[in-house]
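Predict the 3D structure for this chain.
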Amino acid sequence: MGDASGAFVAALAHLTEASFPFPKIWSLYPAILGQAIPSAFGRFRLAVTIMTGEKLKYLLSIMNSKLGEWYFNQISTTSGMGTNRWKKYKIEQMRIKTISKEKQRLFERMVEYITTVKSNNAIIATYFETILDLMVYEIYLTKEVNTADANILCHLDNLPDIQPLIEKDQTEKARKTIEKVYQELSDPNHPVNIAMIRMQEIEEVQ
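Done. Predicted structure below.
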C-alpha cells in the first residue's frame, strides 16, 4: 500500500489560490490569517486554512485585529516556533460579535480601504488598521468605550464606497478617494481623531 499522506502532500502541492475561484480567507501555517504568501511557484505550501462563505471581510476584520489576535493567543495551540497554529477547531472557537448589517458594512469598507492602499501607502494603511482595531474594541468593549466617550463607529457612517471603483478596475481613483478620507479623519479636530485619543486611555485597550 502506498503512503496516503505522501499522496495528499503531492496533491496539495499542485493547488494554487486560483484552485479556489470564489471569495475566501486563506492562510499558510504559521502565517497570520489573510496575510499568507504562496510559494515561489504560486503553489500552496503545507498547512493551508481556507474559509469560505458569507461575511468574510467582517470575519477578517475581527481575526486580524489586535483584540482578535489577543483572544486567539489565549485559545490556540503553539507551533513551537513562537507562532500560533490556525487550526479549524480553534478558529471555530473565536467569538464573533453579532452586529447589524449597517455596522458590518463599515467593517467591510475599512477592510477594502486597507487592502486597496496597503501595497502602495503603508502610512495610510496603518492608520486605517488602527481605526479598525478601535472599531473592534467598540463592539466588544461597548461599556468601557461609552464610559470614555470614545465611540468611533457613529462618525464613520458616511465613508465613501470604493467597491464600485474596484469592480471597474479604477484602483487609482479608489486610492485617491481613500487618501481624501484619510486627510479628513486625521485632522486633529475631527471626532474620529478625538475618539482615537480617548480610546487609548481605556485600560483594556492599553
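The beta strands are 25-28, 48-51, 77-78, 84-85.
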